[in-house]
Amino acid sequence: MFKILVVDDEAKIREVIKTYAEFEGHTVEEASDGLEAIEKCKEQDFDVIVMDIMMPRLDGFSSYKEIRKNKDIPVLMLSARGEEYDKLFGFEIGIDDYVVKPFSPKELMARLNVIVKRHQKTVENEVLEFEGLKIDLDGKVVYVDDEKVDMTPKEYDLLVFLATNENIALSRDKLLSKVWGYDFYGDDRTVDTHIKMLRNSIKDYRKFIVTVRGTGYKFDTRE
Questions:
Q1: For residue range 14-48, what is the model confidence (pLDDT) as tens digits?
Q2: Are 133 and 144 spatial neighbours (Cβ–Cβ below 8 Å)?
Q3: ∠ CA 126-132-138 to the nearest 5 degrees?
Q4: Which CATH class is domain 125-219?
Q5: In this structure, what DSSP letter does residue 180 have?
Q6: Which residue among 5, 101, 140, 193 is buried most deeply as judged by most CB within 10 Å?
Q7: TM segments (predicted)?
Q8: Sheet harboring 97-100: ordered strands across?
């Protein structure tokens, strides 16, 4: 269970998110604008922030940039617009996810669970271990049965993104945008080629990289 700060000038939106979050056992604090959010983050620690972009006094992007000067808290941005520019700018300043209103509260909570899990793994664990596969996040080194593996930077980035989204199906488009970046004009073959290279690099632990037919791939560690 984790602590969420919900920032939105619409009370109904805050109430919906709070209801679903508390039903799942999480703790929720509310703020009605960006300035209030900054003050709450100075006073308290949060595991994740849900923040609207368009708010009075101070918008969500400006607020989050100010919060990040002092604290490393992951954020999911909400917007009534689905503008590509907003998404691009958001990811450039370090947001973790972006949801367009109206949204499904259940999907929102699922996304928050992924964000918090990924952030906790990255921050708390210097090494991710899956049987004999070890990923040293600080050193950016991968070991297979205690032997260092030589791989390209993109192979490494792809492996880390898959592993920190453990057991979640990821589309090829999602992998392209998150691993290669939104300014990369690639296609499905780019992802498939790197997946093939990555599977060869991690040898027997290729079993963790599962093809999801019609979608993409997932890092599946379940028996």
A1: 999 999 999 999 999 999 999 999 999 999 999 99
A2: yes
A3: 20
A4: mainly alpha
A5: I
A6: 5
A7: none
A8: 27-31, 3-7, 48-52, 75-79, 97-100
